[in-house]
From TrEMBL:
SMART domains: CLECT. Transmembrane segments: none annotated. This is C-type lectin domain-containing protein. It comes from the Eukaryota. PANTHER family: C-TYPE LECTIN DOMAIN FAMILY 20 MEMBER A-RELATED (PTHR45784), C-TYPE LECTIN DOMAIN FAMILY 4 MEMBER K-LIKE-RELATED (PTHR45784:SF3). Residues 1-19 form the signal peptide. Keywords: Signal. Residues 21-130, 125-239 form the C-type lectin domain.
Length: 239
């Protein structure tokens, strides 16, 4: 009688400025890796800032090249992220991307030194998945902030379109209509809880510019930010 064979996939989790990157050592083609991440986590990992790049580079170590969620859109020939949004930060190696092999290198990988290179999507490589969770409890904005601090994190800041779109995927699959994010109106302007200005914005109109009462920010299922009463209890996302 043949013995059953069990295959165990070991995953390594690395804390990220927003959410977590999970290193999957199993080797797959880019599209298969994308499907794997979407079925078990959220999507292939993205890099939209130097902070993201530093985290990915630290996690990479000396391991072989790995897929990230960057691809060349065949329609407009623009590099975009699998979870949504165009590439605004880049860390290509010298003379890359070169779209070699007769124009078939339309996906991006990251080398052990952190540099990016375009590659054929049929290459079989390990990869990174991105994930994040919505806390199950409901709290006021301040309560949510204190809750996150107890876990050495903070309410989430969405500083780019890729971050916003990936987090939106989680919100749309959650039972709540909205979740607290790290937006607060202080000193006559909206700021992220970490003090950073709003480089990327998703307000539906102009009502947020001078709020009389609702001075805390939430992300809705409609992919928009909205002003809410800070004492209102909502689910929330810690970074």
């Amino acid at each position: 009688m043949a013995r059953p064979i069990f295959i165990i996939i070991l995953c390594t989790v690395f804390d990220e400025a927003v959410g977590k990157h999970i290193y999957i050592p199993q080797k797959m083609k880019w599209l298969d890796a994308q499907a794997y991440c979407r079925s078990r986590y959220i999507d292939l990992s993205f890099v939209s800032s130097q902070s993201d790049q530093d985290q990915i580079e630290e996690a990479s170590g000396t391991t072989p090249e790995k897929w990230i969620g960057l691809y060349l859109d065949p329609n407009d020939k623009v590099w975009k992220w699998s979870g949504g949004g165009v590439m605004t930060y880049e860390n290509w190696a010298n003379n890359q991307p070169d779209n070699g092999r007769n124009g078939t290198e339309t996906k991006a990988l990251i080398w052990p030194d952190g540099k990016w290179n375009d590659a054929n999507e049929d290459s079989v490589l390990p990869f990174y998945c991105f994930t994040i969770d919505i806390d199950l409890v409901k709290m006021s904005w301040e309560g949510a902030l204190e809750y996150c601090k107890k876990t050495n994190t903070s309410l989430i800041s969405l500083n780019s379109e890729p971050e916003h779109l990936l987090i939106q995927t989680v919100v749309q699959n959650h039972r709540s209509d909205r979740v607290w994010i790290g937006l607060r109106y202080l000193g006559a302007r909206w700021l992220w809880v970490n003090g950073e200005p709003l480089e990327y914005q998703a307000w539906p109109g102009q009502d947020h510019q001078c709020p009389a009462m609702n001075r805390c920010g939430a992300l809705t299922k409609d992919r928009l930010w909205e002003t809410r009463d800070c004492l209102e209890e909502n689910h929330f996302i810690c970074e």
